[in-house]
Amino acid sequence: MTNGGQIVLKEKLVQYFDLPQLQTNMRREILAGFTTFISMAYILFVNPSVLGATGMDKGAVFTATAIASALGCILMGVLAKYPIAIAPGLGVNAFFAYSVVIGMKIPWQTALAGVFVASLIFILITVLKLRETIINAIPRNLKLAIAAGIGLFIAFLGLHNGGLIVANESTVVGLGPLTVGTTWLTVFGLIITAILMVRRIPGAIFIGMVATTILGLVTGLIAMPSAIIAGAPSIKSTFMVGAMHIGDINSLQLVVVVLTFLLVTFFDTAGTLVGLAEQAGFMKNNKMPRVGKALLADSSSMLVGSLLGTSPTSAFVESSAGIAVGGRSGLTAVTTGLLFIGGLFFSPLLAVVTNQVTAPALIIVGVLMAQSLREIEWHKMEIAIPAFLIVLGMPLTYSISDGIALGFIMYPLTMIAAKRGKEVHPLMYALFFVFVLFIWILNQ
């Protein structure tokens, strides 16, 4: 491209993304996009690790993760013009792998079909502008509890995968043996990442993973990779599997799984969008402009991701890193998306990103998600009891859906006991019966 062409393109980008009005510039936006990417690049390696536990090909999941993330970020930037990145979410991928596939013994192909159906519903309710009704139906306290509960569940997975927590016949779980070298990789990674997070270093989680990997390679606890750069792994084993297995969703149990995918993804994205919009100063009259387009970008990437072979996408809280360095426009998200495309060619590094490398990332993300606990109205027992059951139920039952079910069943009962039954949305009463059936079906 000639210099004249570059200048014209730059002017068009500046105009389209309203950079002067937002008091920013291209250099700052690109830097913010790079910062966001570095902060969340760990998902390229963590997601294949989590979904790989189901038997899915890690290489295919790696490629699907990169493409779905790139699409989501670019759509968010172009359509909604927000500096918010999208990628397969931690938490819902754990629900996909450990609750649905491993826990319920549902084939991963059927689980992908569930994600596909949930994404179609997500797009429908976004287009029909039903999101406000759904958001308002679920009490804010329970939304906060779900986020925190998922955080504890993710942290528990990290502690277990890293070898710090193991099964114990006497006490159910206990501290893992510290005589195992790989366990010390987890300890090292957790300490380094924690220090970086406390020091507010951009990309702390990613840097922590790199440092842990290097220590593992130097000490011989992790085998050297055969290469660093290679062509993108094939997605043949997962491509279009979700659409082809849609007929497998033929039971109430699977319908509940689809609804859970929808609810968890929807509220995780909605909560993250609002929080990031508050940080960037986008909120107007307690409302987020263009939120419909933002949700459409997310639901579209979720649909494509389900067809490529990955769990649901959601807005990433790590976008706050890019916002913190000045990102204010969609150009930040577009930059992040383009970097995800570049990340496609680093799949050989999957071999060195072991469970001990990703474990600290899971634990720290759990800490971030658990921060919503402070906003729950613990002084009101009719709120505290169902919220507590959700938060504690997820890690102890090793199931996100079971934790949600416990809280959603208890909530109408405690509200009625507090003589506040009229405050409960009719949808919550409907969900009461849905989750009672859900628990009953699981125990047959």
From TrEMBL:
Species of origin: Loigolactobacillus rennini DSM 20253
Lineage: Bacteria, Bacillati, Bacillota, Bacilli, Lactobacillales
Transmembrane regions listed in the UniProt entry: 30-47, 59-79, 86-104, 110-130, 142-166, 178-198, 205-232, 252-277, 330-351, 385-412, 424-442
Gene Ontology cellular component annotations, sorted alphabetically: plasma membrane
Keyword presence, DNA-binding: no
Signal peptide start-end: none
Entry protein name: Nucleobase cation symporter
Membrane topology: Multi-pass membrane protein
Database matches in InterPro entries: Azg-like, Azg-like_bact_archaea, NCS2
Pfam family, one: Xan_ur_permease
